[in-house]
């Protein structure tokens, strides 16, 4: 059983109390994490604040090199962290599971470390010179979810550090252990206080709320639900914090009649069911033209039957359980309603424990909750359409706007339709793939700001304009 400490000012801190972390595949106790108090948080923020001036003052090339060295720190501990991740989150070691997540974390770290923060010359003539400089904000607070806990921690931490900020991160209480491990590995290569982690189940003090209102935290980066994101935004208002909020999605995929169902079935499946559907940018609604609707349904069912679900420690498992009881209950409720009103093509009834079978449901009424609410689990509604204009209208009817996709052999037509989707990212003939060079974030209720690439790095800076 794991008992890990928080990292505060370069030291491992156990805390006065702990909370339990369980394996969703077996229900067994995986380990215990420190249950931070407000005093613990204040110590972490004070350490980050004290470390900030020296870290921000480093020559840019040196800070870039220090960030690049984090890749080796993660790599040296990757096997251990992946194993812990599988135990606490449930995803398999293989496929697009824990080892895939650690590989992605290293790739994002390396690319983000390589980014530049050049001075931009806005004017240079006989009237004078005007320069745009990007400067670090200060202490960045990071609050991360349970679905991709290591990857998303990296998405928050590394651009903040690269820009010259210091960081205090709070992971989800469902998956704190892998974050404690990856932060400890990274912090060991950095000056004390530059990177800190506090863990809490918020039963002692509401650490997340305290972070978003803390006067010494200059920015909050939050990934999670729309409702919680709105609370973070309200709490941050009094201190005028900078914010990056990557919130929920209800992504739609639209399949045009020129597609070959057999050719696209595998990509459609993984667009919806990567990480067991527990991904913000997974496809949550699938609109299929009437001409090929039934054939696409048949192809999806056939492919889904080949995907093995089981304990993530089994090397043969491709999908694992739903990560926690809270999410399992939500998926169960949405599917139970869909079973009553739609045509269940596969699955539909919960398995033992937190395992929920891959579920495909067609012919649902337009107002079905499974269509309009983000299920965040292994269930997909398939909606028949005859007019592509109606499909676009339905896709855009959601209050969310994270991602969307168009599926067609006619790339130019697909591109024109994709640009009409009201979402931050659109894909053609795929769904959900992310790239460290491509900015990512949502429209409408799916958040504000962008992560990744140059734009994501810049969100961790303040602009100062210099007139000479």
Automatic annotation (TrEMBL):
The active site annotation covers 246
Protein name (Swiss-Prot/TrEMBL):
Acyl-CoA reductase
What PROSITE patterns does the record tag this protein with? ALDEHYDE_DEHYDR_CYS, ALDEHYDE_DEHYDR_GLU
Keyword list, A-Z: Oxidoreductase
Q: Which InterPro entries does this UniProt record tie to the protein?
A: Ald_DH/histidinol_DH, Ald_DH_C, Ald_DH_CS_CYS, Ald_DH_CS_GLU, Ald_DH_N, Aldehyde_DH_dom, LUC3-like
One annotated GO molecular function: oxidoreductase activity, acting on the aldehyde or oxo group of donors, NAD or NADP as acceptor
Q: Which top-level group of life is the source organism from?
A: Bacteria
Q: Which residues form a coiled coil?
A: none
Pfam families, per database record:
Aldedh
What's the family?
Belongs to the aldehyde dehydrogenase family.
Query: What organism is the protein native to?
Result: Celeribacter neptunius
| Signal peptide range in chain numbering | none
- SUPFAM superfamilies given for it? ALDH-like
Which Gene3D superfamilies does the entry mention?
Aldehyde Dehydrogenase, Chain A, domain 1, Aldehyde Dehydrogenase, Chain A, domain 2
All copies of the Aldehyde dehydrogenase domain together span 16-464
